[in-house]
Design goal:
By secondary structure, the protein is of the alpha/beta class. The chain is built from five helices and seven strands; from the N terminus they run ββαββαβαβαβα. The structure holds guanosine-5'-triphosphate and magnesium ion (MG). Magnesium ion binds next to α1. The site of guanosine-5'-triphosphate (GTP) has 23 residues, from α1.
């Protein structure tokens, strides 16, 4: 699938204010700074469609981007960012949870994982939550340019092992990406294209 048009529609912190069109949508979630906004820019061939920063906590709202006038990409705030106050964090998490619990148009969540790191508790817990909530998800490993090719494979294998040693019977669909090198784009877009056609 090709992305021909990508336009910003709305940012907000309330699920009720998200677009009312019943178009399918795909949300990007993961720890702060993992590369969610950068990945959206890479997928859409836009430098600054989604705002990025080297400092964690850049995206603070639910951001809808309409693609090909036909479906949405959704950029979400990161979880696990310790520097916001406890109160802000609680609100953050509540509206992210509201989004996942109430947004019926959500057809698939992409959970972003920094390929350099071992499986983190917060990511595992979030995937468990998605599983329990019966929300389909896929994993996107980010920042693969930071590791050599052999290491990329080793880290993916190690991650698989960690997941399978836990509650998961099989590895979810996954993609290895680098927004810096525009790597992994086709796989993700094909995956979305197939779901949209079903
Ligand atoms: P929050 O909005 O704060 O939750 O962060 P985010 O997950 O949206 O991350 P963002 O896209 O803003 O990127 C965070 C930092 O990682 C920025 O400095 C990016 O340039 C960098 N980054 C993102 N993707 C990649 C990548 O593929 N390779 C490298 N080397 N750096 C990346
Ligand atoms: Mg962001």
């Amino acid at each position: 699938m090709k992305i021909n048009t990508a336009e910003f529609v709305i940012s907000n912190s309330e699920v009720d204010k998200c677009p009312k069109d019943r178009l399918p949508e795909y949300a990007f979630i993961g720890r702060s700074n993992v590369g969610k906004s950068s990945l959206i820019n890479m997928l859409t061939n836009h430098k600054n469609l989604a705002k990025t920063s080297s400092k964690p906590g850049k995206t603070q709202l639910i951001n809808h981007f309409k693609i090909n006038n036909n479906w949405f990409l959704v950029d979400l705030p990161g979880y696990g960012y310790a520097r916001v106050s406890k109160k802000t964090k609680a609100v953050f998490q509540q509206f992210i949870m509201d989004y996942f619990e109430q947004r019926e148009q959500l057809v698939c969540a992409f959970v972003l994982i920094d390929i350099r790191l071992e499986a983190q508790k917060i990511d595992l817990e979030f995937m468990e939550y998605l599983g329990e909530s019966e929300i389909p998800f896929a994993i996107i490993f980010t920042k693969s340019d930071k590791l050599g090719k052999n290491k990329v494979n080793n880290h993916v294998e190690a991650y698989k092992k960690q997941l399978l040693a836990g509650d998961w019977a099989e590895m979810p669909p996954y993609f290895v990406t680098s927004s810096l090198e525009a790597k992994g784009k086709e796989g993700i877009l094909e995956y979305i294209g197939q779901i949209n056609e079903d």
